[in-house]
Amino acid sequence: MVRLRTVKRAAGGGAGRHGADVSAGGAAGYGEASVHGAVAPRGGARYEDAFAPEAALTLDGVTRSYRRGGRSVNALDGVSLAVPRGRFLAVMGRSGSGKSTFLQCSAGLDRPTSGTVHIGGTDLAKLSEAGLTRLRRDRIGFIFQALNLVPSLSVAENTALPLLLAGARPDDPSVRERALRVLDSVGLRGRADDAPSELSGGQQQRVAIARALVTNPAVIFGDEPTGALDPATATDVLTLLRDAVDKEGHTVVMVTHDPVAASWTDEAIFIEDGRIVGRLDHPDPDTVARTMARLGER
Length: 298
Hints:
25% strand; single chain
């Protein structure tokens, strides 16, 4: 059983705005001493001796290496993190920092070179490719910037697609009712029989969220889910994700470059050169933007 060490604030640091960790160098959440180990539970308290099975997502010493130009390059370099159930986490970093590789390894889309990833108590390294496929289908929800809705299916059928892929019968009334309940939670029950093309971009993104929620997943991963949306529509989507955490107890891990989007989360982590180099509890847009700017100065 993996034991993750407790996060300690950097020497000389204190609490910044919104409970942010502040390193000795003065940058909120910036500095190696403040970032490794278990993610803080909501409310700012620290885990003491957090165990992986108590978390929705756990990474322990995860490294992902690639061959480039005849040499080995680490896209992830010894990342350790535990995300408690019912938490909204933002993953931030510059282009090429490793945040997309973090998402891919965390969600079972790619296998680490070393280290372990657990979804709940399931060690992904012990799963076959077929087992990983089942886990992604049944226990993980995905929300991408590219919505990947099927044009020939109705809104309800798109929402129910993970259930149908798992073997549910299309004519089973419980499948449609489950899809309708989730569509109701995102305000689209009345559009269940419409085609995706009849919806606005924001409404289509809501369908993607409903599809991610329909299996009651252990973790929902979002890859820039508001990246192509206008500010008002992005606010609607972030409200739905926030409600999924606060009202339904879901765990959401969202890759984003947007400081405003990050401010909706419980915590933001910052990745640079494949390592977690900073973290903010209850981030606000200004502090996130300053932290990102400091990453650019490294």
